[in-house]
Amino acid sequence: xxxFEFLLQGLLxxxxxxxxxxxxxxxxxxxxxxxxxxxxxxxTVALLLPVTYRLDPTGSLIMFAGIYYGGMYGGSxxxxxxxxxxxxxxxxxxxxxxxxxxxxxxxxxxxxSAIGSFVAGLVATLLLAxxxxxxxxxxxxxxxxxxxxxxxxxxVTVSSAFGDSALRGLTALFVGLAFSIxxxxxxxxxxxxxxxxxxxxxxxxxxxMAVAMFAIGxxxxxxAQGMRGPETVEAVKGSVWMSAQDWxxxxxxxxxxxxxxxxxxxxxxGGAEIGTFLSYATEKRLTKHPEEFGNGAIEGVxxxxxxxxxxxxxxxxxxxxxxLPTTATAAIMLAGFQQYGLQPGPLLFATNPQLVWGLIASxxxxxxxxxxxxxxxxxxxxxxxxxxxxxxxAGILVFATLGTIGANPSVFELGMLLxxxxxxxxxxxxxxxxxxxxVGLILGPLAEQQLRRALAISQGDVTYLFTSPIAAxxxxxxxxxxxxxxxxxxxxxxxxxSQMAANED
Length: 505
What we know:
Elements: H1 3-14, H2 17-34, H3 41-48, H4 57-82, H5 91-102, H6 106-139, H7 144-161, H8 166-180, E1 183-184, E2 191-192, H9 206-224, H10 244-266, H11 272-286, H12 299-322, H13 328-338, H14 346-351, H15 353-374, H16 378-384, H17 389-407, H18 411-429, H19 435-457, H20 469-504
Antiparallel strand pairs: 1-2
Helix pairs in contact: 1-15, 2-3, 2-4, 2-15, 3-4, 3-9, 3-13, 4-5, 4-6, 4-12, 4-13, 4-15, 5-6, 5-12, 6-10, 6-12, 6-15, 7-8, 7-19, 7-20, 8-19, 9-17, 9-18, 9-19, 10-11, 10-12, 11-12, 13-19
């Protein structure tokens, strides 16, 4: 079957009444939670992860994708109306979007953000559908050493791309790898690091750790900051619809943002924030209204938001085809696959084509649903921003706890939830990224298994790991993935500081 036929088959699956309902629930929940201040897509997906536990895999992952896209949409509302980016990728949206809101143009800012996200998500999802099979054809040729090299690339990606220090990222990764060896050894059947506790024989539950470290740890950290001054929600004045001039100034940035964001999202160690900064810089260079930049230029919202959502779809290319997470949200989505015993990668396309293509097709439907939901219901999302902070944080903690009880009704599991939540809080306090811990827990057993298989084939010859052309290329890319983010981080920090200084002037 051709890609087009697979996509049509996926659309038929995604348009089944129950799957449409799951997609609608997912985008609504994702937007509602993502719009709350201080809650980004990663925390949104982690918090709602247990909600999908009892569903069938296809319905669950469709809801999951809706939550992911909804969280991305919701973050732009917070950035524009509250000047509080939920994640680093929304910083640029806040720069221009909040200035537009203060000038009484919050409606057009939200509209160009929503429509730009729709355009970018639509184009990027189609690119995902047509590029994925080619990546799968390459990945099918992978043996144990190629898979081990791919795992190394994943480890380097998450440890170097997240946080302000590659050393802290590596430290967090090794914490996750240490947790991953708890339980019964897959090859020998020996117990490791279980300390005589029967509940640890099956290893540490990925869902529990993801919810604890992202939802509980992040919430405790944000709540511990206290009130850092009053937060003013800018009212949406006038019409939310864009004028003809707004359309004329937005459509090109939408397309340019899509072209910039998608490949960066698909690259190991890409990161959505890089695409948004590049899009912003491009629009500032090409604009016919340079005097408006820093004072509320609509191009400065349209381009970066398109880049942000195109990057989100781009992230799914390495995740679905190689099982390689390149963002914190992708790491949580990987945990979502694993709770059903599914491992994203080339074999998933062969063994579960209906699930994979239904998921890809559901992204198209989720995009359309989000456009319909976001513009008419802007007033409702604005009201959510007024929820008192103590109620918000208490609600998140209760929801995360109830979700864990529903998925794993055990006193021991609740204890693990609390322990990992406190660990996540401590790591955030000292500036250690969370994503490498979760990725280490998920991919650690796979990397160990493939390494031991490769060494068994070569009878202990370590050079065997480097003699395959594909493995050698992946290891070289891993080395670049370690070095390039360091350079980009230094340059990006300098560009951001200069931009903020210019805005203050």
